Structures are given as structure tokens and as C-alpha cells.
């Protein structure tokens, strides 16, 4: 399964990927994107199975990335891992078509419990 | 130790402590009790570095973390799961420090009345100019024996770094 992890922080991308491995998703083929615009290029080029994105990024935010993908007819499953998890942001994410939003800080258990129902 | 001013926008000092401790327990140390609130006189920060985000709401709340560079290097190694003697470059330090305040600030946003967009994190080797803005919360901790401060400042509306929608 090809997955794109988008976050403008290399440190946070490493933490997200390490936590995904700890959660049991060590079979995922993960590609990193440095911001939303970078992720969009990679989505267009490689057609991933899943996108896991930060929200607050330079160049293009995560919600702008999701809305652009959907506007282009791209229905790739998409979810957020972000430092903010307010009800308003969760509503925005769901309305734009995100599967879920994981708020930082997170654990491997958080990832497993949240992701497993969607990635059977 | 935490102090909250009374005549300014109020925030829950204990909740702020809990947010910082939860972040460190979950993503840095893997256990609670390593980042602990400090009491009494704080040891001075050595070769201090500053990192902050601005929460835009009815006013702008600046969330500012200050730490000594060597402590910040330890923090970077912990976040990247690097050995204790791994050299840390400025870029990795800035990235790690920025993420610390980004996550803490993102969670503090829920405590700030009218909390809206969050700015991208900034990192500097000098304290940012808060334009004489009042301090609304001050907390200091020790982490692995070294001091770390977490302060909130009430900036005027339209001040601070731009938030993202």
C-alpha cells in the first residue's frame, strides 16, 4: 500500500512514520512530502492509496490540499495528523472528505485504533 | 510553578502544565514524570533559544517556549530517536523546537477564548519582540534536570505572525 505522509517538519514526519511502524503498518510503502503543494504533485504523479497530512503547512495547507484533490475528482482516502483537534477543524475536515483527524500528541495505540477501522 | 494574571484574558495554568507534560510523556519521553513543574528560583537558561506560535482569536496569544541550546539538542535527539552523542545541526534543532511549540500551542489554542488560526512556528536565538504585551501565563519546568519555560503573551489584535486558515 502506497502512502504519502505530508508535514512541513522533517522531525514530525519521522515521528509519524516511526509511530506508524510501531502501530503495525510496517508494510506500508511511505513517501514523504514537505508541504501541501509537494504532496499534491506526488499524489498526481504516483496515485497513492492513502494520504496522511498535517494541516498547518506553508505553500499549501492540508485542508487546501484535500479540497484541491477532491475538486480534481481525486477520491484517494485522506486523513489529518495535526496539532489542533478542535470540533470546528474536525467538522471542516469531515466536510472536505477526510476520513478522520488525529490530534498531536499521539501514540501508536491512537494510530491503530483510529486507522484500523478504515484500512482493513 | 504557574502564575496567571487576573485582569487579562485568563487561561488555566494547570491545564497548560498538563498539555506540556502530556506532549513530553507521549512523544518525547514515553513516560510521565520526566518533564516536571519547577518550584522556587529557576536556574538561568544557558545559550537560550526561543520558539513560538501565535494563536489568532479575539486577540493574539503568543505561546513562547524558551530552552537552553544543549537542552534543545537533547530534545531533538529524543524526538528523532537518535543516540545521546549524535550531533545536532541548526536545521534539525529549529525543526524540533518548532514542533514542540507547534503541538503545545495547538493544544493551548483550545484554552484561548476565540482561538482561531495558528501561525507557523518561529525559532530564534533571542526573545521575540512582544511589543510590551502583557504576560498572561508563566510556567517553568525542569526536563532531565534542565530548565524550560512556557509563557503566554496577550498581543494586540492584528499583531504577531500570520495565521493560516
From TrEMBL, chain B:
UniProt cross-references to Gene3D superfamilies, sorted A to Z: CheC-like
Domain of life of the source: Bacteria
Keywords from the named record: Chemotaxis
Protein name: Chemotaxis phosphatase CheX-like domain-containing protein
InterPro entries membership: CheC-like_sf, CheX-like_dom
Species in which this protein is naturally found: Demequina litorisediminis
Domain annotation Chemotaxis phosphatase CheX-like: ranges: 53-125
Amino acid at each position: 500500500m502506497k502512502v504519502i505522509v505530508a508535514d512541513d517538519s522533517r522531525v514530525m514526519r519521522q515521528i509519524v512514520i516511526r509511530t506508524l511502524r510501531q502501530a503495525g503498518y510496517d508494510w506500508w510503502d511511505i513517501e514523504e512530502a514537505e508541504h501541501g503543494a509537494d504532496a499534491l504533485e506526488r499524489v498526481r504523479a504516483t496515485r497513492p492509496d492513502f494520504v496522511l497530512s498535517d494541516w498547518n503547512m506553508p505553500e499549501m495547507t492540508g485542508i487546501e490540499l484535500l479540497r484541491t484533490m477532491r475538486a480534481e475528482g481525486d477520491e484517494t482516502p485522506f486523513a489529518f495528523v495535526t496539532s489542533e483537534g478542535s470540533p470546528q477543524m474536525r467538522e471542516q475536515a469531515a466536510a472536505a472528505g477526510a476520513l478522520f483527524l488525529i490530534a498531536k500528541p499521539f501514540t501508536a495505540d491512537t494510530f491503530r485504533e483510529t486507522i484500523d477501522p478504515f484500512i482493513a | 510553578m504557574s502564575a496567571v494574571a487576573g485582569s487579562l484574558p485568563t487561561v488555566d495554568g494547570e491545564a497548560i502544565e498538563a498539555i506540556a507534560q502530556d506532549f513530553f510523556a507521549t512523544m518525547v519521553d514515553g513516560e510521565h514524570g520526566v518533564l516536571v513543574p519547577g518550584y522556587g528560583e529557576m536556574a538561568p537558561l544557558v545559550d537560550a533559544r526561543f520558539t513560538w506560535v501565535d494563536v489568532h482569536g479575539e486577540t493574539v496569544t503568543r505561546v513562547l517556549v524558551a530552552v537552553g541550546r544543549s537542552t534543545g539538542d537533547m530534545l531533538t535527539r529524543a524526538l528523532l530517536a537518535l543516540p545521546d552523542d549524535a550531533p545536532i545541526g541548526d536545521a534539525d534543532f529549529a525543526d524540533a523546537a518548532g514542533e514542540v511549540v507547534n503541538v503545545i500551542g495547538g493544544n493551548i489554542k483550545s484554552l484561548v477564548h476565540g482561538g482561531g488560526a495558528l501561525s507557523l512556528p518561529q525559532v530564534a536565538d533571542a526573545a521575540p519582540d512582544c511589543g510590551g504585551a502583557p504576560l498572561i501565563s508563566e510556567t517553568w519546568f525542569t526536563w532531565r534536570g534542565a530548565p524550560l519555560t512556557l509563557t503566554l503573551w496577550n498581543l494586540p489584535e492584528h499583531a504577531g505572525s500570520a495565521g493560516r486558515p
